[in-house]
Amino acid sequence: MVKASVPSRICLFGEHQDYLGLEVIAAAIDLRFYASVTPREDRQLRIKIRDRALSALGQPNPGRYQEYQLDLSQPQVYQGQRDYFRSVVNVLTRAGYQLGGADVVLDSEIPIGKGMCSSTAMVMALMAGLAAQFGQELEPMELAKLGWQAEVAEFGEPGGMMDHYAGALGGILHLDFSDGVQVEKLPDNLKEDFILFDSLQEKDTLAVLRSAKTPSVHGLKVLAAYGAHSVRDLAENPVLERRIGMLPEEMARRVRANVDNYRLQRMAYQMLSSKEVSGRQLGGLLNRHQSNLRDGLGISTPKIDHILEMAHSDGAYGGKINGSGGGGCLFCYAPKDKTEQILQDAAEHGIPAKRLSITGGVQIENI
Asked: How many Cα atoms sit within 13 Å of 239 on the Cβ side?
């Protein structure tokens, strides 16, 4: 029996930037998706997965699972979008991995549907577990690429690769998507606490991605006629940046937000690459990022804004939405001596919250 696990992540800087070919700073955190794989004698793949109704942060699983069965002796024909179990089998098979029948139990500490990349972690944990059980352990970089293929490209959906690399490699990563993918591990010099909150608001990730992405992409196409081929061009050339004012207001607002978020990411990269990180300065950058996500891209909610205000009043340096927005989770960065007060206030208001630790990437255990 093999047990594979893949962590969730927080996006520190660069939210809604990876699909624009820009840079992202992400950190893997100690919430994981687990795949326990036991081989079978036949060609059946029987999967039990934690019930989706159990979706809140910190909510235990009282033995509630949904069950699925795939016959590996037959072609795996998709039954609809996000048919991830079949896409995992198809992508692994096309990549040359030989799979056999297995009983699989999928469990998770990651809130489902809350911007915490639960589907990415599930896809990659299942991939890693199946490959390892049948003697073909996936290297982390390969796992990230195949995971993205199975989750995103296979169904023609919008979405970048940040989640896949963060989950596979772990730690704090600077990811540059301008020319393929360039990965740099950053030192963990963060001395204070990250605290994750679950707003308990469901979100439509694809709708949010489209509303934030489409106007930005269309705006860049218009500005390309003037020599601005990317957000980076606009951020580095004041003359080009003024051209944003030519765009319709909604489109211009989103492009401006992406330009400022790119600048924030560059400032954060310089800070996080150094030996000393100022908690107050880091929090200020997070707050400015959140303002752009709220006012520029329009992906915050009144409840998320309220939770962040509560954390700030309790002494947090700063915080932001985590993931695509429109609901789901958020986090703050706070002095260690303020963490307990922040957690206590969250509990009193019925808001699930957890102190986070930076963690490693994919893990494989033989049990």
From this structure: 2
For 49-59, the pLDDT digits (tens) are 999 888 899 99
Residue 169 located in a structural domain = yes
- Output the six-digit token pair for 340: 């307990």
Contact of 281 with 270, CB cutoff 8 Å: no
C-alpha distances out from residue 203 to 2, 115, 116, 197, 206, Å: 33, 8, 11, 15, 9
282 part of a folded domain: no
Task: Give the tens place of pLDDT for each residue, 275-306.
Answer: 889 999 999 999 999 999 999 999 999 999 99
Residue 308 has a pLDDT of 98
The helix or strand, by DSSP H or E, that contains position 365, with its residue range, turns out to be strand 363-366
Question: What is the SS3 string spanning the chain?
Answer: CEEEEEEEEEEEECCCCHHHCCEEEEEEEEEEEEEEEEECCCCEEEEEEECCCCCCCCCCCCCCEEEEEEECCCCCCCCCCCCHHHHHHHHHHHCCCCCCCEEEEEEECCCCCCCCCHHHHHHHHHHHHHHHHCCCCCCHHHHHHHHHHHHCHHHCCCCCCHHHHHHHHECEEEEECCCCCEEEEECCCCCCEEEEEECCCCCCHHHHHHHHHHHHHHHHHHHHCCCCCCHHHHHHCHHHHHHHHHCCHHHHHHHHHHHHHHHHHHHHHHHHCCCCCCHHHHHHHHHHHHHHHHHHCCCCCHHHHHHHHHHHHCCCCEEEECCCCCCCEEEEEECHHHHHHHHHHHHHCCCCEEEECECECCEEEEC
Q: Counting Cβ atoms within 10 Å, is residue 38 exposed (0-12), middle (13-18) or buried (19+)?
A: middle
CATH number at residue 124: 3.30.230.10
State how many domains the chain has: 1
Domain assignment of residue 255, yes or no: no
Q: What is the pLDDT of residues 202-222, one digit of tens each?
A: 887 777 777 788 888 899 999
Parent domain of 110: 2-186+359-366
Determine, yes or no, domain membership for 177. Answer: yes
Dihedral angle, C-alpha 279, 282, 286, 288, nearest 10 °: 120
For residue 333, pLDDT beyond 90: yes
pTM: predicted TM-score of the whole model, two decimal places: 0.93
